[in-house]
């Protein structure tokens, strides 16, 4: 088989297509991470123009997801074997998580333009810290995907509890500001939603980590994971 | 070819597997719709026990998504042709949207137990109306998927603007209650998040509608769609 030049040509081309798929998905992830960082920056700098650019950029991420779907179709039509198929399935799922992360970044940018019509908020500091955690998780899991590193993927999964705890603390803090002064309610509601989105980005990073596990280890079940987002039960 | 009994056996079995995949995905959708209805009911009746059942049931939806992924793997390994492959890709994407809808229903149930520790809220009425709209969209899109009805799928897509408009109105209403009395802030924040989740369920129904289009029509581009969720820009 290995000596059949025709066959080798097909195999090589499949590998090339597969590498292209991985690179596209990683590029999509990098775009989402950059969007997220820009959104946090724009929130801090109160820059409407930059916010609009972030919102417009989200289309490029969506377009890349379509391209990935298209490549997945092409690859799947070639009847891949088990490991290759896991590669394809992981790419399509990871692309879908990244697409959501991009949406959350664009949503934060959108809310920042509303916040810019109101006086500056000191509460933005806690949000930035949560945002930094979310970016860190995202970049780590993309690296785990790039290098097929299950240990790194596992540490991202474990790290989500820290994101959840930071979110719950910020949630409670924002509620107290809202209670202190009704004028804080509208701006802090936007911050609450942005905070929730950052917490959700942590969940999507965890999903990606689980797909890296699935990709490398196959159907093996994952070890259990701690959850610390207790904001749902705040009274 | 058609006279080869061996070949026919393979073809028939593939169709059976594919029908199984569709039925599993529809069953998953039905479970999510039932969970959503129960969550709305539990919010109205302030029933902690029923809320706990909804939260526990979410695992069954997640398990079904895993089963669907497994079946998708098995089918894809058989090297399907273009339309069959679209069927598979649509199933995996639709299952992922349904999984999120199930999460949102469970999250509403979780928040209802927190709300039950506080005095009853009259604002629950507007939330129920939004919930009814979300359930309607979900059931319609599942029917469109079951019957491959692109027109019905298109009407679900168009209907999302109504969900968005209802959400934006409710969002503004809830903010006024929070401003009127600081004691409303914590409970109304939970309602705000539940409302946002219902709006997101509308978005997932729209995603499913777009997958029905993709499934039936292939890569043809979709007509543009109106967006009416203006809550991101409320000041």
From TrEMBL, chains A, B:
Superkingdom, taxonomy of origin: Bacteria
Statement: the UniProt record of this protein carries the keyword Nucleotidyltransferase: no
Main subcellular location: cytoplasm
SUPFAM superfamilies assigned to the protein according to its UniProt record, in alphabetical order: PhoU-like
KW Nucleotide-binding (keyword) present: no
Domain PhoU: 26-111, 130-212
GO biological process, alphabetically ordered: intracellular phosphate ion homeostasis; negative regulation of phosphate metabolic process; phosphate ion transport
Compartments, as annotated in UniProt: Cytoplasm
GO cellular component labels: cytoplasm
Similarity section: Belongs to the PhoU family.
Protein's UniProt name: Phosphate-specific transport system accessory protein PhoU
Natural source organism: Aerolutibacter ruishenii
Taxonomy of the source species: Bacteria, Pseudomonadati, Pseudomonadota, Gammaproteobacteria, Lysobacterales
């Amino acid at each position: 088989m290995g000596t059949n030049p025709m066959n080798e040509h097909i195999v090589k081309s499949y590998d090339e297509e597969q590498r292209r798929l991985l690179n596209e998905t990683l590029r999509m992830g990098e775009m989402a991470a950059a969007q997220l960082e820009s959104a946090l920056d724009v929130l801090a700098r109160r820059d409407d123009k930059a916010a609009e650019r972030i919102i417009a950029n989200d289309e490029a991420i969506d377009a890349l997801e379509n391209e990935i779907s298209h490549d997945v179709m092409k690859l799947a039509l070639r009847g891949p074997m088990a490991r290759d198929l896991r590669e394809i399935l992981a790419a399509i799922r990871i692309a879908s998580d990244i697409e959501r992360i991009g949406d959350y970044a664009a949503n934060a940018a959108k809310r920042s333009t509303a916040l810019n019509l109101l006086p500056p908020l000191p509460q933005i500091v806690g949000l930035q810290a949560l945002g930094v955690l979310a970016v860190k998780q995202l970049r780590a899991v993309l690296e785990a995907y790039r290098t097929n590193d299950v240990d790194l993927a596992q540490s991202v999964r474990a790290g989500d509890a820290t994101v959840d705890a930071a979110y719950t603390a910020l949630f409670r803090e924002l509620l107290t500001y809202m209670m202190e002064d009704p004028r804080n309610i509208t701006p802090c509601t936007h911050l609450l939603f942005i905070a929730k989105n950052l917490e959700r980005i942590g969940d999507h990073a965890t999903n990606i980590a689980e797909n890296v596990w699935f990709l490398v280890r196959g159907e093996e079940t994952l070890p259990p994971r701690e959850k610390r987002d207790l904001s749902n039960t705040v009274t």
